[in-house]
Automatic annotation (TrEMBL):
<protein>
    <submittedName>
        <fullName>Uncharacterized protein LOC130494863</fullName>
    </submittedName>
</protein>
<dbReference type="InterPro" id="IPR026960">
    <property type="entry name" value="RVT-Znf"/>
</dbReference>
<dbReference type="Pfam" id="PF00078">
    <property type="entry name" value="RVT_1"/>
</dbReference>
<dbReference type="Pfam" id="PF13966">
    <property type="entry name" value="zf-RVT"/>
</dbReference>
<dbReference type="InterPro" id="IPR043502">
    <property type="entry name" value="DNA/RNA_pol_sf"/>
</dbReference>
<feature type="domain" description="Reverse transcriptase zinc-binding">
    <location>
        <begin position="483"/>
        <end position="558"/>
    </location>
</feature>
<feature type="domain" description="Reverse transcriptase">
    <location>
        <begin position="2"/>
        <end position="157"/>
    </location>
</feature>
<dbReference type="InterPro" id="IPR000477">
    <property type="entry name" value="RT_dom"/>
</dbReference>
Length: 701
């Protein structure tokens, strides 16, 4: 009998009255309900409490001062609706200041309930309760959170009196709780279970360790649902309805707060695809089309299933949008104090030991920046050179004419505060000419309204998950799909075989352009269990571009090479743009006497350094020895910058003469730094220093 719940069947007349009262009550709830409660209040979501709780658990695990002071109590009110005393409900509403007329209306709705028991299909008896709220009544959730405010008030009162403290560990807290005290706390609070391995609001409490193992329950839950259906008797139309309404909705609750690993996304997509293509489960059906193509929208002639990873990013971008739009909310203040105290959630900030909640939300930053723009009203809160406010798609900061002299300049500094118009002279002084017409097209508010955010892909300027998913599906494609923006991939791959370098290097460059390189990003995508971070610098993800061009050791090699570099030209964030520059564009900026540039060898060095193999001096010498002509037998050695007068220009050294040159030096020193390897030699009779960039022990060990 303990598992039975009374179910009230409300007639149409009652539901009309109840919904009218609900609509009137919703408008005043935000002012009555404290920010601690997030359910059933407009502008708040239950995910707020999930994120705050996870931040608390993460702080308890990682904060040095809390290592021996960890305790979190989760309360679960059994039969909460059925135990609400009517007199208490009336007292709470009267304490909150509701009028007697309103209280009378609410109490008549609550106390008019009657129960009857169905026995053999016939209602028997007439039970008149003395407490409890109706299950299924639209009013019940709002009445319940009003009564919960009494508990919140007691907690606030105890905190004001110093009887309890917040989560921050204070000096008054004991450093250790003995077993007797722990048992006493459990007895007083009625705690029956402990261990911390349960769930909070349907989410695992302990978000640590392997995320694939942690979120594996999503696939198990989906497979349990699929196995309960008989796919043999379902048409394609029926399967489509079940997939869209049930299977794709199962992980949505978790995905709105956490970023699922790619392995989990692929497993879920694989299970759904197996259900879709199989006509006789559990036998495997023929997959007639790639699943990514099946998930394209119906406007493109496909079915329109959702891609799990892209939809996950769209949901997380919604959380990031709420942090930017509602900076005064409780969850925004908690995350701001921890991760972006003096900045914005839209800017990349380096933090130590972030929680998985923040890591997940940060993963959607790139998506949101493709469509978000700061709408100028007064301009006091928008930075000219950092925030996306120029009305383009995607929006971006203004571009300066010269190096930025005022990095913290606000948009309000470019506005004439008396006339409330743009100061054209200042614009022409600081901003590039192509940005000035765009800036002058922006309207300026005559009042001091705060600046807001708007979303470019909806009519009302508000972010929606639907529009975010469209951006993720169409504008966040993989680099190898950006044919219209980047150089022709086919031409790049074909030119890889024309490079004047050993065949092994040509094959390596072709592998880079086809994505067939064993960097951790590619390994994880192929469901191989390995750490996703870069083994050299610790970046969260190691891509091909990162390994060859962006990793600090690789970047330093390029800076020391003869290849012209520029922060806005090379190296870029795309492997194709970088290779296009190395193949063709750099030839227009090289010095006339540079007849040879060893960029294929630098690429080889950077990747060999990643793999950890040893590229010996003999192998290097043999590779260059088998050149076809004496002209190709020369290696251009990089010019070292003239810093303090010690370093001199290095010159072309003919390979057969290089050994003789090294034998004539009186001092040879080899040094290894964390970022890059190099060696230098000193010849006292010439008073000349030579810096020789190393190609794995830098040509010679």
């Amino acid at each position: 009998m303990t598992q039975f719940r009374p179910i009230s069947l409300c007639n149409v007349s009652y539901k009309i009255i109840s919904k009218v009262l609900c609509q009137r009550l919703k408008k005043v709830l935000p002012g009555l309900i404290s920010e601690i409660q997030s359910s059933f209040v407009a502008g708040r979501q239950i995910s707020d409490n999930i994120m705050i709780a996870q931040e608390m658990f993460h702080a308890l695990r990682t904060k040095p001062s809390g290592r021996n002071k960890r305790m979190a109590i989760k309360t679960d009110m059994s039969k909460a609706y059925d135990r609400m005393e009517w007199s208490f409900i009336e007292a709470v509403m009267r304490k909150m200041g509701f009028s007697e007329t309103w209280i009378t209306w609410i109490m008549r709705c609550i106390t008019s309930v009657q129960y009857r028991v169905l026995m053999n299909g016939q209602p028997r008896g007439n039970i008149i309760p003395g407490r409890g709220l109706r299950q299924g009544d639209p009013l019940s959730p709002f009445i319940f959170i009003l009564c919960t405010e009494a508990l919140v008030s007691f907690l606030n009162h105890a905190e004001n009196q110093g009887k309890i403290t917040g989560m921050r560990v204070t000096r008054a807290c004991p450093s250790r709780i003995n077993a007797t005290t722990r048992q006493e706390i459990k007895d007083v609070l009625g705690i029956q279970n402990d261990g911390g391995m349960g769930t909070y609001l349907g989410i695992p409490e302990d978000i640590s360790g392997s995320k694939c193992k942690l979120f594996a329950f999503l696939k198990d839950k989906l497979m349990h649902r699929v196995n309960g259906w008989t796919g043999r008797w379902l048409s394609k139309g029926g399967k489509e309805v079940l997939i869209k309404s049930i299977l794709l909705a199962l992980p949505t609750y978790v995905m709105s707060t956490f970023l699922l690993p790619l392995e989990i996304c692929e497993n879920i997509a694989s299970a759904i695809a197996q259900f879709w293509w199989s006509s006789n489960p559990p036998k495997r059906g023929i997959h007639w089309s790639k699943w990514e193509k099946v998930c394209l929208p119906r406007e493109d002639g496909r079915i329109g299933f959702r891609l799990i990873h892209e939809f996950n990013l769209a949901l997380l971008a919604k959380q990031l949008w709420r942090l930017a739009q509602n900076p005064d909310s409780l969850v925004a203040r908690v995350l701001k104090g921890r991760y972006y105290r003096l900045s914005s959630p839209l800017r990349i900030n380096s933090v130590n030991s972030p929680s998985y909640v923040w890591t997940s939300i940060s993963a959607a930053r790139e998506l949101l920046l493709l469509g978000i723009r700061q709408k100028i009203h007064s301009g006091y809160e928008v930075k000219v050179w950092e925030d996306p406010w120029i009305p383009l798609n995607p929006a971006r900061p203004a571009i300066p004419i010269a190096p930025v002299m005022h990095p913290n300049m606000r948009v309000s500094d470019l506005i004439n505060q008396e006339s409330k118009e743009w100061d054209v002279e200042l614009l022409e002084q600081y901003v590039r000419p192509e940005d000035i017409p765009l800036i002058r097209s922006l309207a300026i508010s005559i009042t001091h309204r705060p600046d807001t955010f708007c979303w470019n892909f909806t009519r009302n300027g508000q972010y929606t998950v639907k529009s975010g998913y469209w951006v993720a599906q169409n504008m966040l494609k993989e680099v190898d799909e950006k044919q219209g923006v980047e150089p022709s991939i086919t031409k790049l791959q074909a030119f890889a075989w024309k490079i004047k370098a050993p065949k092994k290097i040509c094959h390596l460059i072709w592998q880079l352009l086809t994505g067939q390189v064993a960097v951790t990003r590619n390994l994880v995508r192929r469901n191989m269990r390995c750490d996703n971070y870069c083994p050299r610098c610790g970046e969260p993800e190691e891509s091909v571009t990162h390994a060859i061009f962006e990793c600090p050791p690789s970047l330093q090699v390029w800076l020391h090479s003869s290849t012209p570099t520029s922060p806005v030209i090379f190296p870029a964030s795309s492997i194709y743009t970088n290779m296009n520059y190395l193949f063709w564009e750099k030839n227009g900026v090289l010095e006339p006497d540079q007849d040879r540039d060893p960029y294929p060898w630098l690429i080889w060095l950077n990747l060999v350094g990643v793999d950890g193999s040893d590229w010996t001096a003999a192998e290097t010498h043999n590779s260059w020895k088998h050149r076809t002509s004496p002209e190709e037998n020369q290696l251009y050695i990089q010019k070292w910058k003239h810093y303090d007068g010690r370093w001199r220009i290095c010159f072309n050294i003919h390979m057969p003469e290089l050994w003789n040159e090294l034998q004539g030096f009186d001092y040879y020193d080899q040094r290894t730094s964390r970022l890059a390897k190099f060696c230098y030699v000193t010849r006292e009779d010439r008073d000349t220093d030579y810096m020789l960039p190393r190609l794995q022990d830098f040509l010679y060990s």
